[in-house]
Structure to design on (391 residues):
């Protein structure tokens, strides 16, 4: 094959969280190849295809003189293994965690005289990369292209997984194992300067800037607490309608930038929309009784800390049979709401992809037009589907 595999027109990179937390080590060049392969996976893919990536996309300042370097790095990349958490047959994380070691790719090769490398992911990674339904983390390729260090790239993914929670605490030994660091990082000062400080500097201009604090157990640093802010992207061109529960939560005084944390709880199955309605009604009564002064703060705390869940379940159990029937009739409504949430997420991704495709330097004059056309067609399709659901 003489042509490289093109980037899809929706350059999102998605991984199962078990892969995000897997233990492996890649060089800077290998990391760029790994990310380039991830970016070429499409949502509808059901199996891995051979992926061709241009050498100049993975080697900075590539020329014919350093293709020997590419062949050498592929020797290591082709033998790379991951220590990763095993998943259940339906692709979910198991209650009892078991780890296995598997190869990253089936093969990786470079053809003399060609300007690209070819590789294919190992089929054992299928449940970690294809047809993901939950427990996954996604990132925009435009943000990943800003990162140079392989360790920073891994830290970026670890923080993205917890972006909606505002912080993540990781044991130092676990973080070093995930990053595949050797004995030269046993001294915390080396680890802090060469890994943590560098990552903080590199990610300052991305959507996952962070501050961190070492947490000591006695004299030794045992954990790192990362603190960061996940801002809900507001695109005035997207025209994505808010769900009824989102409008009600905002009306109660919760900040727009706080919605992702509530959405994360909802999508993770921690509770259903019924709990949100219960919290809104309960807090409103508390405000009227003078027990609560800041309605928005109380609603946000109840929805992120879930401390009202026991009361909510007890209230559900006390319902009379005659009160349950209307809920049974609303199952179709709940299904529509689920479909709307999925469409809104896909629309948000599509509009982010549109901005990326309009400006990213990885597209040429020849390829940008086709990519823009594909993204715009997807947006039109999603908008039409949403209008049909809301009719």
């Amino acid at each position: 094959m003489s042509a490289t595999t093109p980037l899809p027109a929706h350059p999102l990179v998605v991984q199962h969280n078990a892969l995000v937390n897997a233990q492996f080590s890649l060089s800077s060049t290998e990391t760029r190849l790994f990310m380039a392969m991830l970016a070429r996976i499409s949502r509808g893919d059901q199996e891995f295809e051979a992926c061709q990536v241009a050498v100049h996309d993975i080697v900075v300042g590539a020329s014919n003189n350093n293709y020997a370097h590419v062949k050498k790095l592929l020797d290591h990349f082709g033998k790379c293994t991951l220590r990763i958490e095993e998943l259940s047959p339906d692709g979910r994380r198991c209650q009892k965690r078991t780890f296995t070691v598997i190869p990253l790719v089936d093969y990786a090769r470079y053809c003399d005289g060609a300007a690209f490398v070819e590789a294919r992911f190992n089929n054992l990674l299928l449940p970690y990369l294809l047809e993901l339904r939950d427990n996954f983390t996604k990132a925009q390729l435009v943000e990943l292209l800003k990162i140079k260090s392989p360790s920073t790239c891994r830290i970026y993914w670890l923080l993205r997984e917890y972006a909606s929670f505002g912080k993540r605490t990781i044991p130092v030994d676990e973080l070093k194992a995930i990053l595949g660091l050797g004995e030269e990082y046993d001294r915390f000062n080396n680890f802090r300067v060469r890994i943590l400080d560098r990552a903080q500097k590199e990610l300052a201009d991305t959507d996952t800037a962070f501050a961190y604090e070492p947490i000591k157990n006695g004299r030794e640093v045992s954990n790192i607490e990362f603190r960061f802010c996940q801002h809900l992207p507001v695109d005035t061109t997207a025209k994505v309608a808010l769900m009824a529960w989102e409008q009600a939560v905002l009306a109660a005084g919760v900040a727009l930038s706080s919605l992702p944390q509530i959405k994360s709880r909802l999508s993770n199955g921690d509770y259903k929309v019924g709990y949100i309605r219960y919290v809104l009604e309960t807090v409103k009564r508390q405000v009227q009784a003078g027990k609560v002064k800041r309605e928005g703060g109380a609603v946000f705390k109840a929805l992120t800390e879930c401390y009202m869940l026991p009361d909510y379940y007890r209230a559900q159990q006390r319902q009379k049979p005659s009160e349950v029937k209307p809920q049974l009739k609303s199952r179709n409504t709940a299904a529509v709401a689920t479909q709307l949430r999925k469409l809104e997420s896909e629309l948000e991704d599509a509009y982010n992809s549109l901005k990326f495709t309009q400006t990213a330097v990885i597209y040429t004059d020849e390829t940008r037009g086709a990519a823009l056309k594909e993204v715009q067609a997807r947006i039109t399709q999603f908008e039409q589907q949403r209008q049909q659901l809301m009719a």
In short: Strands lie at 12-16, 51-54, 81-85, 99-103, 105-110, 116-121, 136-140, 167-171, 210-217, 220-228. The radius of gyration is 23 Å.
